């Protein structure tokens, strides 16, 4: 026992033990040093002067199991350190309970994660720049080829020009494919979901690429399933990406000049639907062996030097990885005639009829479209086929007509001739980008000089509203977005709204939905018992911490203010109480810099009001549980 005691006493990991009432009965020197005090003082008082862990420790003592949290401390020399703290209750032989807590420093890990995130952001920016540099000359080539195809040329010349179009499209996709590949390899997965009729969704994707296929002399035929498929929940961003890339791969490799796309139910197990997607009639050429290896799940083909020389589609490889990440399987089927088909299976949650009726997805909720967008005329300016297909699918039941432009120049041209109720403008466009196109529309004397223009942006950082307003944008929508976000954006900017009942229901629902969100907790968000504990913990601890924060502000104890604000920022951030988290972030910055101190009272007002609302909602839900 003496040896074990000595190990913990000399450990560099801050460690302490509390009794059942939360009094510190043992601690090591590392714990005392972390809090800038002496060990005898801690043991004499049985507590720290400011013990921010007290409420959490009492909660852990009243329950069983292990509690893990990340904590931030500011040292006397000004350095900040991160610790992973593990708290566990221990029952002693006499029946009393105590709490054991030990912390391991993870500052280097946190910094490494931040460096990795910054590195990916830099890579994303670089690839976006490369994409812009490529798009202008490649689109010029495409335009010239289209003009040539309208002249008197032979069949062979037409075939050559189709090959040029195919190669040009492939080159344009490379930076985007590299970025998607980097996202997959980095484990950055978008979790956006949408409830859809999968047949209608898939048909919309097929139609979106049909015109490109026609340019290259290829016909796409969509074969619907014979049996009616139930409504399912999908990730629209990834499913549309997979479908577009795989179909375009088929167009690239086919020799039969016809591609047949079909979808069928493979299996249904309880509330899960397993679908098989087939792209058939691909005539294989000299790259067929490499293409087959690409779909071999056991072969890490992309890392092979032979792959790099073969020219096999990186976009398809990325789609393969996306399918496998979602638990699906993809393979290449060949027959004796050297015709082939790309096959892949995916599983989707089935949405029960009651859930569908309560859903706020515009494509399925028939109460949305009767009056809110009748006779609305929209212009979508976006060069991405997947994005075009997604928007067309999302508004298909809204009685809304839409024109589509693939470039900024084409968007400005359409806007100079036709009156639109709203223009949806992608910011990252080839050649003339969205900012330039919007400025051109605003500066013209055309019919859409004052038409609302919404910016579509993939910028993951903070949006500079002044920059967007200066360019002439009315509003913005960050990709990826939910269908209802698009609906609200259109409604907000055109003055067309759904029935009063729908609006009131949605407003009431959104007040609670936007107030907090447990989805960031991962699988634990589905654990009702865990969520109730989180809610009770919030009610028991957060109001008390706010009172301590108010007292520290009154006493102008800015170091304590910074520590409490940092802790509360994480608390709010974990359950996405956005307003309070942002306010706490600003309070932490103000208390650290000692500037704009007069702003703290306004921020505390936001925090207090938001917290009260969350407490009221959590209390109501706990009463109903």
UniProtKB/TrEMBL annotation:
Reactions catalysed according to its record: ATP + protein L-histidine = ADP + protein N-phospho-L-histidine
Location of 4-aspartylphosphate modifications: 426
Tagged with keyword Metal-binding: no
Pfam families on file: HATPase_c (PF02518), HisKA (PF00512), Hpt (PF01627), PAS_8 (PF13188), Response_reg (PF00072)
Stretches of the chain forming a coiled coil according to its record: none
UniProt domain Histidine kinase: residue ranges: 129-352
Domain PAS: 1-76
EC number(s) given by UniProt: 2.7.13.3
This protein's name: histidine kinase
